[in-house]
What does this fold into?
Amino acid sequence: MVDATSVQIRGNTKTTREEWLQAARDVLVAEGAAHIKIDRLARGLGVTRGGFYWFFRNRQDLLDQLLADWKSSRSDRVFQTLKEPFSDPIDLFVRFTVALVNEREYSPALDSAVRDWARTSVRAKKAVTLVDDRRIKLLTDAFKQLGYSGEDAFIRARVFYFHQVGYYAMELRETREQRLHYLPVYFKVLTGFDLPAEQLEKIAAEL
It folds into this structure.
């Protein structure tokens, strides 16, 4: 069922709030937050800038909403993956790996762009810290279920997480075959446990 209010707003503006946000995300990823301009977004959407003000007070409001949407736990696919119930913590680490590596629902390019934004924005820095802490907390809990405790679990969670973030920050490029070849070694080094063969097959099927 189509919401009547949404139809009316779209009829008046020819755009939706999400279209403006997606246009802003595209610019953020391609060129950075400094290049997100109202006129530029309007031209890209093929509309006048008047429609922008149906959804945002000004450019800063757009940036704030863009950041709020990125840091929302509902939008954070990595967090949602880690939050799902698990009976075997190894399976959680496998799900985490698949979510980040297959790049279908999770966008490493967007994450990296927000991290770059955080170098010059206090608000973006706070958002990145919140998201990282939230993800690392769930990884810490998983390491505790593997038998690690206290700071050992926390540091292992940070190393495991920062390893993957570093992959994208350094723009490492590997083929699917290379990633699958290295994965069992990485897994053993980062978790202290062997990656079960059936789990490797599961990952290979997902990639």
Q: What stands out?
A: Residues 4-71 form a domain with the Arc Repressor Mutant, subunit A fold (CATH 1.10.10.60). The chain has a mean pLDDT of 88. Residues 122-145 form the longest helix (24 residues). The chain has two domains: 4-71, 77-206.
